[in-house]
Amino acid sequence: MQRIFSKGTLRKYWEKYPETEQYLKTWYDTAMNATWKNPHDVKLTYATASILKNERIVFNIKGNSFRLITKINFEKQWIFVRFIGTHSEHDKIDANTI
């Protein structure tokens, strides 16, 4: 079981963009109940996830309309939400360092 920091970030986002609520809740529930030991395990659950350097993984939300960037510490089973935004907002940042 994972520990996710922070659901509040996701909640604030879906309150601002209600069309993302169910998608982010589904991602949250799936991630909370996962036991991902490495990036390959993540890809088994989310085939479209992009594995980046610095422990970053990008998840496509709502048919790739939105992007969720996380930093995952597989050893401790911690997931840090680093960014959530539209696909175009994502294109303006460096997902490897955010």
Strand order of the largest sheet: 1-5-4-3-2
Structural class: alpha+beta
Enumerate how many helices there are, as a single number: 4
Largest sheet: 5 strands, mixed
Q: Give the rounded overall mean pLDDT.
A: 92
Question: Secondary-structure element order, as H and E?
Answer: EHHHEEEEH
Quaternary structure annotation:
single chain
Share in helix: 25-40%
Q: DSSP strand (E) fraction?
A: 25-35%
Number of DSSP-assigned strands: 5
| Radius of gyration over C-alpha positions, nearest whole angstrom | 12 Å
- N- to C-terminal distance: 25 Å
| Envelope shape | globular
Task: Describe the 3D structure.
By secondary structure, the chain is α+β, with helices and mostly antiparallel strands. Helices cover 35% and strands 29% of the residues. It contains 4 helices and 5 strands, in the order E-H-H-H-E-E-E-E-H. Strands 1-5-4-3-2 form a 5-stranded mixed sheet. A hairpin with a 4-residue loop joins strand 4 and strand 5. Helix 1 packs antiparallel against helix 2. It is globular and about 35 Å long. The mean pLDDT is 92.
